[in-house]
Amino acid sequence: MILKTFGWSFGVTAMGLAAAFYFWGWEGFAVVAILSVLEISLSFDNAVVNAGVLKKMNAFWQRIFLTIGILIAVFGMRLVFPVAIVSVTAGVGPIDAVQLALDDPDQYEQMVTDAHPSIAAFGGMFLLMIFLNFIFQERDVHWLGPLERPLARLGRIDAFSVGVALAALLLTASTVATHAYQHGGTYSDESSTVLLSGIAGLLTYLVVGGLSGFFENKLEEDEEREEAKAEEAAEEAKAAGQQPTVVGLAGRAAFFLFLYLEVLDASFSFDGVIGAFAITNHIFWMALGLGIGAMYVRSITIYLVREGTLDDYRYLEHGAHYAIGALATMLLVSIRWHLPEWVTGGVGVALIGLSFWSSVRANRADAAARRENDSSDESAIPSGV
């Protein structure tokens, strides 16, 4: 089962890491490996969400999502989108950006470095909104309870996360402006770029979230209609003496479900792509690392759908979002101060690893408590009964 589901992912991983080592040595190998782990971890909750919604579809639409959907996810968001970001921010065409990276890596790196403030501001704000909307949301499971509970209460204030994000953007822009002024520049040089790019990142998040909400509402409406039809069909089958069958969503309902999942996957892809810029500007390393990670997201989705169960690691989603928050902070900080790649990559992986270990410990504690309760119940039964 594992080999059948994850076989393609294992193969792509081996080829991708081998190619990274062959062309760029151990540095390329290490960065691609870090990006792969980061993408898998940040998109893990995406796979869980996909599996929970995908199981409602019929077999045809499941195949559509797992084939066309993965092509969009891997080649569209993980491969084309990073090039598009460089193209827009550096002011060159997409083909020119790739050609420049191949022919003149030094000039390409300089162009990306010059465009870094706009990339970091856009991506930092987008990622920060993902983290803030998670941390300010009330939930049943808490990883860091003393921190998360009061923050969830603050989240009851309307648009509180947007206000915090804008405050962080203003602080970043003012820091950049002060630094520019002290070094002979003007307040309007780099700070205006940071402000415009940061607001664009915020608006992008709001638009993507709005589209997701729209498709989710359409999905709920269509699901209600499909459930009513299914109940009528079941009653008719029962009246005719036939066994009622369970059929996955199809037609208009499945189409809206497919669109909803694509928008949702795109929003999750943003954090991986933007987070990759916090680790490296090398588009080929990003393409390999994010492509490998996207393959595992597909495999995990298939595994969860086929098994009919969701993951038991309760704090992994928390760790992924804390990693997103750390990446957002480091992106905004990197506009003013340079951060080593091992720091930006290591912090996220460490947070996710810590959340995974905390989940394992919690599961073991629950299992031990159940065994203790079972043994106490057995001892309470009188002998001879």
Automatic annotation (TrEMBL):
It comes from the Bacteria. The chain crosses the membrane at residues 7-24, 30-53, 65-95, 115-136, 157-181, 193-215, 245-261, 273-297, 318-336, 342-360. The keyword Transmembrane helix applies. Residues 216-243 form a coiled coil. It holds the Pfam family DUF475. Keywords: Coiled coil, Membrane, Transmembrane, Transmembrane helix. This is DUF475 domain-containing protein.
